[in-house]
Structures are given as C-alpha cells and as structure tokens.
Amino acid sequence: MRRKVPLTQATITSIVFYLLAIRFSVVITIGQCRHHYLHLNSDNIRFGPRRVHPTSGPQQVDISIDEGQAYVLVVVLEKMSGAGKTVCVTGASGYIASNIVKLLLQRGYAVKASVRYPNNPAKTDHLLKLDGAKERLHLFKADLLEEGAFDAAIDGCDGVFHTASPFFTSVADPEKELIEPALKGTLNVLGSCSKASSVKRVVVTSSLAAVAFNARPKTPEVVIDETWFSDPEFCKEMKLWYVLSKTLAEEAAWKFAEEKGMDMVTINPAMVIGPLLQSTLNTSAESIANLMNGAETYANSSLGWVNVKDVANAHIQAFEIPSANGRYCLVESVVHSSELVEILRKLYPSYPLPQKCADDKPLATTFQVSKEKAKSLGIEYIPLEQSIKETVESLKEKNFLNL
Ligand SMILES: NC(=O)c1ccc[n+]([C@@H]2O[C@H](COP(=O)([O-])OP(=O)(O)OC[C@H]3O[C@@H](n4cnc5c(N)ncnc54)[C@H](OP(=O)(O)O)[C@@H]3O)[C@@H](O)[C@H]2O)c1
C-alpha cells in the first residue's frame, strides 16, 4: 500500500496506531519534511532509524512495536536539511561528486556544480537528469589549473565540496597529469573559498592514499586511523604517483586552511565502489570491471573498500554537523584481492574471473582502518558484498562488462 500524506505529529501518531490496529506492513511516503525521523513519545513504541539510506530516496525508519507484536517498516520523508542553502561541488561530472550532487539535491540544497566540459553531454546529462536538478542545479565551467576559475561557482555559497582531482594509476607524466592538478588545483579552489565570505566550511575529498602510505609496518593487527599520514618520500620511492598527488594536496590544503583560519574537513575514503551515475568508467569501478572482463591475474595487494553512497553521505554530514572536524577515514573492509575475487566468483560464477595472483610472493597482509571517527558522522557502512553487487549491476547496466 502506498499513500501520500502530509506530515504532522497527529498524522504520524494516527499512522502508528493504525498499524498497531491492523498488524500489517505498510509503506507510507511522506515528502518535504525537515526532520530526519519520527519522534514519537509513546512507551510501547521504539523507533529507528536502525539504518538510514539517504541516497536511495526517502529514508527508511524501522519501528518495532512491543505490544502489538507487529513489525512494520515505514518509509519516511526525504531529509530536507539543505533547503535554502547553496553549496558548490567541484568536479561534479565525476563518480563520487555526481553521487554527492544527487544527495545534496535530494536534501534540498541548491548546487553550483563545476565541470570542465559543460557542453559535453557525456559529462553533464546524468547530472541534469537528477531529481531537483531543473530547479536547483547550476553548472559552471572550471579547470583546476586556471587561476580564479572557481570564483564564480563558489561565490555566495554556504559550503564547498572540493572533489575534483585526477584519479589515474597509469600516467606518462605524473607531475603534469596528477600532481599539478591535485596540488595547484586544491590551492586554487581554496583560494576562491577564502575570497567568498559566505563559505562557512570546505569539505575536501582527500583519500586513504594520503593516510596509509608510509614505512610503518602493516599487519592484520595494525589499526590505521586519522593520525596517520602518508610519507611523500616513500611514495616517490615506490613510484606511487596518484598517492603522492593526494598526499601533497591534502598537506597543502591543511597548511592553507590553518594560515587563513578556514573551517576545513577532509574525507579520506579507501577504494570507492557502488553504483555509477556517470556514463564514463572511473578508475575504482574499472578495477572491478577489469576482474570481470577476463583479467588473467589479480594484484597481490590488500585494499580498503567503501560504498560511494556512504562516501557521499559522509561528505554532507561533515558539512552539516557543526562539531565535525579534521580528517575522516572511510573504510568498510580491508581485503586482499584474492578475497575480493572470491566474493565476485560466488556472486557471478559464470564470469571469467582470474584464478591466480600476479606474483608468487607472500600475499600482501591486510590491516585495519579505524571506524570510530566515521561513526560520529552517523555512517553505518554498507557491507562489502552488497557494494560489490551494486557495482557489478551498475557496470552491467552501463555496458561496461563483456559478458
Ligand atoms: N574513487 C575512489 O576510489 C577514490 C577514493 C578516494 C578518494 N578519491 C578522490 O575522489 C575524487 C573524485 O574521484 P572519482 O573517483 O570520482 O574520480 P573521477 O570520476 O575520475 O572524477 C574526477 C573528477 O575530477 C575532475 N578533474 C580532473 N582533472 C581536472 C581538471 N584539470 N580540472 C577540473 N576538473 C578536473 C574530472 O573532470 P572530468 O570529468 O572533466 O574528467 C572529474 O570530474 C578525487 O579527488 C579522488 O582522488 C577517489
């Protein structure tokens, strides 16, 4: 049953007592409300949310009712916490940024989205089709390396999500292709933020790449947390150019924010997977596509993984929660590639998944990443297996898989 009803306390109370009376599962859609979830004062009703899925439209709130022994799932209200606020998202065409834009629009924000190629439908169509885009999404052209290019997009914004940065693992000229746009681009965007007096907080998409790459030993017992920093010299030695670009960019961002007294938060996700909104294939989703498309071997590496919906949510929570500060590592699980392949094999046995490791060395050890700080943003991670499934289904839908 699906009914649309205006949200008032009296309506909610009557819905719950109706549910009690009929002992039946019902789905109710309540739109346009500023509350996250129901607040009911009744001794025999416990209410959620146990798990909130802010990116999947209306949020879900579990209500369990003791006396009636009925168990109901009520789909409730979109969180409209952004109504009346304007924010900028840089690199909005990209995988993570598109998911941030989608969620911001769902929450009622007006979004000024910077893209490199506003006239290329492959880079913008998916954004223009989002719910709320017609009314509240505005595209701005900006390149990271063009001084002042972000001024117009950032001017008048309450907050900025700086996500634009190249993510490639094989490049011919690391300085030009990765380090310059990441480092100079970040300072360029922060420069525009410091000129705009309206900006209250900047949320920078950094990476676990800027956290975990140093000479400290990693074992399954080691817990990496926000106090860790990657070492640029170590990155250069290992020729980890993308990792270096993120490390230098975050370092420079903190220095800039401190000098200018800017309220900045960084989000440091591990490898991000989950549904793609854009029509092009990004690097982290490509790592799954390659395994599904007949790669002969899997890498001898252990990596952290996290769902893009949790990453998008964490960005917005980091903007909205006044006490949010510093860095936030985002990792649901750390697994060796062999384990990732086993999950894929279980879910998709007919695909030509690799059987062997790329080398005969001992398997790279796993490690842990602390979830404590992310909890304060209200993040309850989507499990890895579900994230993998969502990624593959999305890759299939967008024709990125050969089978
Ligand atoms: N995906 C992950 O696993 C992961 C994990 C941790 C952190 N991150 C970080 O998340 C951010 C987004 O990554 P993503 O995975 O969403 O990758 P993506 O889809 O490739 O997005 C990168 C974005 O940066 C933009 N960009 C690159 N160079 C630019 C330039 N010179 N001027 C303006 N924009 C430029 C791209 O614009 P075009 O669309 O025009 O190319 C694109 O919108 C990056 O900062 C990345 O380091 C990603």
TrEMBL record:
Pfam families attached to this UniProt entry: Epimerase
Domain of life: Eukaryota
Segments crossing the lipid bilayer: 12-31
Catalyzed reaction equations: a (2R,3S,4S)-leucoanthocyanidin + NADP(+) = a (2R,3R)-dihydroflavonol + NADPH + H(+); (2S)-flavan-4-ol + NADP(+) = (2S)-flavanone + NADPH + H(+)
Domain NAD-dependent epimerase/dehydratase: start-end pairs: 87-324
Span of the signal peptide: none
EC category: oxidoreductase
Enzyme Commission number, as recorded: 1.1.1.219, 1.1.1.234
UniProt keyword terms in alphabetical order: Flavonoid biosynthesis, Membrane, NADP, Oxidoreductase, Transmembrane, Transmembrane helix
GO molecular function annotations of the record: dihydroflavanol 4-reductase activity; flavanone 4-reductase activity
Pathway field: Pigment biosynthesis; anthocyanin biosynthesis
InterPro entries given in the database record: Epimerase_deHydtase (IPR001509), NAD(P)-bd_dom_sf (IPR036291), NAD(P)_dehydrat-like (IPR050425)
GO biological process, one term: flavonoid biosynthetic process
Function: Bifunctional enzyme involved in flavonoid metabolism.
Protein family (similarity comment): Belongs to the NAD(P)-dependent epimerase/dehydratase family. Dihydroflavonol-4-reductase subfamily.
Protein's UniProt name: Dihydroflavonol 4-reductase
Organism this protein belongs to: Lactuca saligna (Willowleaf lettuce)
Upper lineage: Eukaryota, Viridiplantae, Streptophyta, Embryophyta, Tracheophyta
